[in-house]
Design goal:
Belongs to the peroxidase family. The protein is an alpha+beta fold and 491 residues long. The protein has helices spanning 9-20, 38-50, 78-89, 99-113, 143-153, 157-167, 201-207, 214-217, 225-230, 236-240, 244-259, 320-324, and strands at residues 32-33, 36-37, 172-174, 189-191, 288-294, 307-309, 314-315, 330-331, 346-352, 360-362, 369-370, 376-378, 384-390, 393-404, 410-417, 429-434, 436-437, 448-455, 460-467, 470-478, 486-490. Helix 2 (38-50) packs across helix 3 and helix 6 (157-167) crosses helix 11. The longest helix is centred in the middle third of the chain and has 16 residues, at 244-259. Bound molecules: protoporphyrin IX containing FE. Residues 36, 40-41, 43-44, 47, 77, 79, 137-139, 146, 163-164, 167-168, 170-174, 177-178, 181, 225 line the site of protoporphyrin IX containing FE.
Length: 491
């Protein structure tokens, strides 16, 4: 059992992205693209985005500023645009999980997808709104400039050697983008080593003098930057990286630092190294899991009881990260009816293995899973996604239904919709709409229904209701975590 405290929307969301996808689907099996691989492209963009960091003043780092830096020659390559399009296409950017977090997650999936080590994931990066300085190292620069670039980014000369070797085990150099490095125009891409996998081939082929790495043996001596870097300590670091165990361990910890290099005013979560959102246990078909709750007065409910056994079990399908860690989990769904008058203040669970052992209580470290307020919430049963047709014209929107039980003077919803742009920068849209009394749903008990039509593709909502003396908000309601009905109708 982990020490995770609910609610923590960022950690919850980051955990779900790492262990349930969907980012890994494009990295699994190290799939080829543009004569390189998708993971090679994802790993390179993470390094280039981080390269703006300056340890001296704490600015720059992994902040998605790359979205504004694509026109620079140091960021040449179709992998850059393709990667950003991949990341935006997942539509997982949320109010607290921006493009920079997706770039970091992409690098983690990239390394794992090509057979490399697990890199612990921290989330909470903040997306830049403009370009950073042009500080990506380039092949024609000398060793001293490279050492200074890496120092500025927070890495020692020895770490520079390892970081470049770890990066250049994937992918290669494209002829059209670097014609001075790869001079033979019949070559589309010259790989750094003979295997697409994340492995030590880049090191062993270099040490055996069989390497075809164009940044080591390319015809143009000026652009042999990998040669200058790899040999800068008499090959001592490269020798140490020959051991696959040491290579994996060194690359994992350097990549973790690379991905966690952020502006000094940004705080990241603790690293996620296990799927803490789940109770990972051995399979026991006789196990029962019961949801229990207390009413709004904090009392455990009277005779009939406030408890509900789980109604089924579902297998959790883990990403390549979960598969690599060999974790398995079962999800226990519930369908509980809460009395509208006595309501709910907190809930918890009891797990009974039914094998004679004491049942276990799961109660968020003693506090219970506390429901802050029950004055306003999204009615997921009445909310629906609507596709309305009239001849060739079609309109898509979401009919949001909100319940509220206070005598409010105004209610509004701010909806967050990930970017549907074709090109970067992929900035989300946030719209604020007033909620109106819902004529189609008469009041029920002390609850009234309010409604608004919002974007079909909205993923997160903040609800606000104000009355004469208070404002109540329900922040970060995750529409992607609920299954809303689709309604097809005519306009
Ligand atoms: C002095 C430092 C470095 C220089 C001069 C350098 C240079 C280059 C060049 C010229 C390419 C070819 C890009 C293309 O044709 O699209 C490349 C590719 C690549 N670099 Fe670096 N690099 C450096 C450091 C790093 C580091 C630290 C990483 C760590 C993540 C990294 C990861 C990659 C990857 C994965 C590719 C392959 C991209 C693909 O195949 O699409 N590089 N690098």
């Amino acid at each position: 059992f982990s020490t995770f405290q609910w609610p923590n929307p960022l950690l919850n969301y980051a955990d779900r992205q790492l262990y349930e996808g969907p980012v890994d689907i494009l990295a699994e099996g190290c799939p080829p693209r543009n004569d390189s691989t998708i993971p090679a492209q994802w790993l390179r963009i993470a390094y280039h985005d981080m390269s703006t960091h300056n340890v001296d003043d704490g600015t720059g780092g992994l902040d998605a500023s790359i979205q504004y830096e694509l026109d620079r020659s140091q960021n040449v390559g179709e992998g850059m645009l393709a990667s950003l399009n991949d990341f935006n296409g997942f539509q997982i950017i949320s109010p607290f999980f921006g493009m920079a977090d997706v770039i970091a997650l992409g690098a983690i999936m990239a390394v794992a997808g090509c057979g490399g080590p697990f890199i612990p994931f921290s989330a909470g990066r903040v997306d830049a709104t403009e370009a950073g300085p042009p500080t990506v190292p380039e092949p024609q620069q000398d060793l001293a400039s490279h050492a200074e670039s890496f120092r500025r980014q927070g890495f020692t000369p020895t770490e520079m050697i390892a970081l470049v070797a770890c990066g250049h085990t994937l992918g290669g150099v494209r002829q059209v983008d670097f014609p001075l490095v790869v001079t033979d125009s019949a070559t589309v891409l010259q790989t750094f080593d003979t295997t697409p996998a994340f492995d030590t081939a880049v090191v062993s082929e270099y040490l055996q003098n069989t390497t075809q790495n164009p940044l080591v043996v390319g015809p143009n001596v000026t652009t042999r930057s990998d040669f200058r870097i790899f040999s800068s300590d008499g090959n001592a670091t490269m020798q140490s990286l020959l051991s696959p165990a040491n290579f994996n361990q060194t690359c994992s910890s350097l990549f973790e630092r690379m991905l966690n290099t952020v502006p000094s005013n940004v705080n990241l979560t603790d690293p996620i190294t296990e799927p803490f959102e789940y109770l990972v246990m051995n399979d026991n078909p006789s196990r029962t899991v019961t949801l229990l709750w207390a009413d709004r007065q904090g009392l455990f409910c009277p005779p009939s009881g406030c408890s509900q056994p789980s109604n089924s079990t579902e297998n959790v399908f883990f990403t390549i990260i979960g598969q690599m860690q060999e974790v398995t989990a079962t999800r226990y769904p519930f369908n509980a009816t809460i009395n509208a008058t006595s309501s709910i203040s907190k809930f918890w669970f009891e797990i009974n293995e039914n094998d004679g052992s004491e049942p276990i209580t799961v109660d968020n470290g003693g506090a219970g899973f506390v429901i802050d307020q029950d004055s306003v919430f999204v009615d997921v049963v009445r909310t629906e996604r609507i596709v309305a047709h009239s001849g060739p014209v079609s309109e898509e929107f979401m009919k949001l239904v909100v319940r509220e039980n206070s005598a409010s003077s105004g209610a509004s919803v701010a909806s967050f919709t990930p970017s549907l742009n074709a090109n970067p920068p992929f900035t989300p849209t946030i719209n604020t709409t007033d909620l109106q009394l819902d004529a189609s749903n008469p009041p029920d008990g002390k609850f009234a229904f309010f409604t608004a039509n919002i974007s079909f593709s909205a993923t997160f909502l903040d609800l606000t209701i104000s009355s004469a003396n208070s404002t109540i908000t329900q922040k970060n309601f995750d529409l992607t975590a609920v299954n809303l009905p689709f309604i097809f109708t005519s306009l």
